[in-house]
Amino acid sequence: MQIPAPDAHQCVIGVAIALPSHYAAQVRAVREAAGDPLAEIVPPHITLLPPTAVDVDSLDEVMRHLRNVATGTQPFDVHLDEVGTFLPVSPVVYLGLRSGAKECDRLQARVRDRRGPLARSLSFPFHPHVTLAHEVADEGLDVAARQGAGLVMDFTVTKLHLYRHLTRSGCDEYPGSGGWEVVAAFAFGGSLASGAVDVSVEGTASVAPATPTTPVVSV
């Protein structure tokens, strides 16, 4: 995962579908077994917008945009049980979607709408997935593939989540590994859910942000 270097007036954000906490714990266990140093730092998720640097002053506009996207989206089901890899392009093992991929694709396209504040191109074609291991040795990738083969996840997506990267100074070995916090959760228009999603973000609590951050809210 590439974390862009923001300037003094920017922060790094991402937009994703957070996994329910019991599934997040399973993914985290696989990443730990694979020796992935980001296992406790990156909350398990399905990426809709990869890490992106934005002006801090634009965050209100970003949140309005995401609220509008969520309002026009109906809840949908996802089923994950397919282990795959991005080798040889990237040393990643992931859990893929058997169903729900088309809905995720439409959602990420709306998040990155060229008329909105999060318009940007992607380095690779969009491929919804949950990472099980990232940039570890071949042995670790094999462990992730074996353990991931036993994972089956079914849940209804009712929200999208805005994350903000927390900068941790003095971390040269894994630059950009300061963790993430949920800034806001935007409920879909047809969702009956209320309040914050049951999502685990372990690994971020002990990381002090470099600048004041927005409290967690649900909208």
TrEMBL record:
Signal peptide: none annotated. Keywords: Ligase. The keyword Ligase applies. InterPro entries: 2H_phosphoesterase_YjcG-like, Cyclic_Pdiesterase. It holds the Pfam family 2_5_RNA_ligase2. GO terms for molecular function: ligase activity. The keyword Ligase applies. SUPFAM superfamilies: LigT-like. It comes from the Bacteria. This is 2'-5' RNA ligase. It comes from Actinomyces naeslundii.
